[in-house]
């Protein structure tokens, strides 16, 4: 397989997964430009080690690389606080009918963006990417039991903070 | 099923990861227990909210073109060798370091790679060593060299402990002319590896370390690649690679110091 053929095979297999890769990166690094950089880095890294032989699915393999690149980036960033601020979220200028569902989504986004990285990761992989515990375990490199307990704590924490936001009338 | 058991199983139940028998027991409990029923309802609400398509972020339309462009550069050697040195964000000591063109990369590798190198795996070896040299070059650009800046081995070692599932040896050899200046995480493929960074006069040494793979047998391998000297060895269940553009005997001195320390002092 020469380099051109390798590239064609790689892109055929991996580029369809770009939206998934971007969604994970965007939720982890929390801004658009960094997320783009992360996805690009991950693809370059994946290409170097692409052989077509793997013990996991293409999606799990790629997302594992994306997750590692993002975590590496987050560790190097001096400030870990999220760029999203509580005050910024509700925009009540929309028509009555849309208000409810729009602000719900804003609230959930906000709550999720404030969860610890490990919790955000499992929720994105499970609820948005619809991956199995086994795949999530491969991506995050922790045992399945840990995936399970992280999901439980992440959901609980998310439910709690949504409840808090409603009580404080933030949304 | 008790309430405690239900709490333990509610998430795998929700995720269809629970066995049929357990799932039936859980279902029965839910029908009789309003408290657990409300926990379940709350979990469902969270899940439904997260699964809304609006929760996903979509990339801008040009991202795939940009990635394709980057990938093309990977298969065009001249483009890849065109190292651009950023004109800013340079610590003052990096330039002399580059000018001196002296750095040691110590790489702790999956050790079978080089030992089993033969015709069929030449391409793979080239990929790996290419990446190491590339990691090394990258480490000297911008502010990439060090994540934890410290000349104290008791600061650097614990820093790694929180990030890797193995413990790289970290010693300072200032007295012998190899000063510990920090550490960082790097990659070999998608595996995270440790890089311990030393300075010898104007030269930098990256010591790359990772757990030795099962089928091992890689000892004392010295080689040159693209102007760098590399030295690999194994000790205490770890594989290490040193790469430098300093003279081979300088590298050997450094490696010997490392090995003396590691023998007997690490489990």
Report on the structure:
- The complex is a heterodimer of chains A (171) and B (267).
- Helix content of chain A is 71%, strand content 0%.
- Chain A is mainly alpha-helical.
- In chain A, helix 6 crosses helix 8.
- Chain B is an alpha+beta fold and 267 residues long.
- Chain B has two domains: 53 residues; 172 residues, MucB/RseB, C-terminal domain (Phosphorylase Kinase, domain 1), CATH 3.30.200.100.
- Chain B has ten helices and eight strands.
- The two termini of chain B are 46 Å apart.
- In chain B, strand 3 and strand 4 form a beta hairpin.
- Chain B is elongated.
- At the A-B interface, helix 1, helix 2, helix 3, helix 4 and helix 5 of A face helix 1, helix 3 and helix 4 of B.
Number of strands of chain A: 0
Which H/E pattern describes the elements of chain B?
A: HHHHHHEHHEHEEEEEEH
How many alpha or pi helices of chain B? 10
Helix content of chain B: 40-55%
Characterize the biggest β-sheet of chain B. 8 strands, mixed
Which pair of chains has the greatest number of interface residues, and how are they split between the two chains?
A-B, 50 and 41 residues
The CATH superfamily of the largest domain in chain A bears the name: Winged helix-like DNA-binding domain superfamily/Winged helix DNA-binding domain
CATH superfamily of the largest domain in chain B: MucB/RseB, C-terminal domain
Q: What is the makeup of the main sheet of chain A?
A: none
Oligomer: heterodimer
By CATH, the topology of the largest domain in chain B is Phosphorylase Kinase, domain 1
Q: What's the number of domains of chain A?
A: 2
The residue ranges of chain B in which pLDDT falls below 50 over 5 or more consecutive positions are 78-90, 98-122
């Amino acid at each position: 397989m020469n380099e051109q053929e390798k590239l064609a095979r790689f892109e055929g297999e991996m580029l369809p997964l770009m939206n998934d890769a971007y969604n994970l990166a965007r939720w982890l690094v929390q801004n658009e430009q960094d997320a783009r950089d992360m996805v690009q880095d991950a693809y370059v890294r994946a290409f170097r080690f692409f052989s077509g032989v793997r013990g996991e699915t293409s999606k799990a393999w790629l997302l594992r690389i994306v997750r590692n690149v993002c975590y590496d980036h987050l560790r190097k960033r001096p400030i870990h606080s999220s760029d999203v601020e509580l005050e910024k979220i509700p925009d009540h200028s929309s028509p009555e009918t849309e208000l409810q569902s729009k602000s719900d989504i804003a609230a959930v986004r906000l709550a999720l963006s404030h969860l610890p990285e490990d919790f955000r990761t499992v929720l994105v992989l499970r609820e948005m990417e619809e991956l199995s515990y086994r795949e999530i375990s491969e991506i995050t490199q922790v045992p399945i039991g840990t995936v399970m307990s992280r999901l439980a704590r992440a959901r609980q924490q998310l439910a709690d903070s949504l409840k808090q936001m409603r009580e404080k009338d933030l949304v | 099923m008790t309430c405690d058991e239900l709490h333990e199983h509610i998430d795998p139940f929700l995720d269809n990861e629970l066995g049929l028998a357990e799932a039936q027991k859980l279902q029965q409990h839910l029908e009789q227990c309003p408290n657990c029923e409300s926990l379940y309802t709350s979990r469902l609400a969270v899940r439904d909210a997260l699964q809304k398509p609006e929760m996903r972020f979509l990339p801008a339309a040009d991202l795939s073109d940009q990635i394709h462009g980057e990938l093309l550069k990977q298969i065009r050697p001249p483009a890849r060798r065109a190292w651009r040195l950023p004109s800013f964000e340079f610590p003052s000591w990096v330039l002399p370091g580059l000018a001196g063109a002296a750095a040691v990369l110590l790489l702790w590798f999956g050790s079978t790679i080089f030992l089993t190198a033969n015709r069929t795996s030449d391409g793979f070896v080239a990929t790996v060593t290419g990446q190491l040299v590339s990691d090394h070059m990258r480490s000297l650009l911008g502010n990439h060299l060090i994540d934890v800046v410290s000349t104290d081995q008791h600061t650097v070692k614990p820093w790694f402990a929180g990030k890797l599932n193995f413990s790289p040896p970290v010693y300072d050899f200032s007295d012998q002319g190899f000063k510990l200046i920090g550490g960082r995480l790097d990659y070999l493929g998608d595996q995270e590896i440790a890089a311990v960074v030393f300075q010898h006069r104007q030269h930098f040494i990256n010591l790359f370390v990772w757990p030795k793979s099962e089928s091992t047998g890689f000892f004392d391998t010295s080689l040159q690649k693209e102007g760098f000297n590399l030295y690999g060895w194994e000790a205490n269940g770890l594989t290490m690679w040193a790469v430098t553009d300093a003279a081979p005997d300088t590298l050997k001195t450094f490696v010997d110091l490392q090995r003396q320390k590691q023998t007997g002092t690490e489990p």
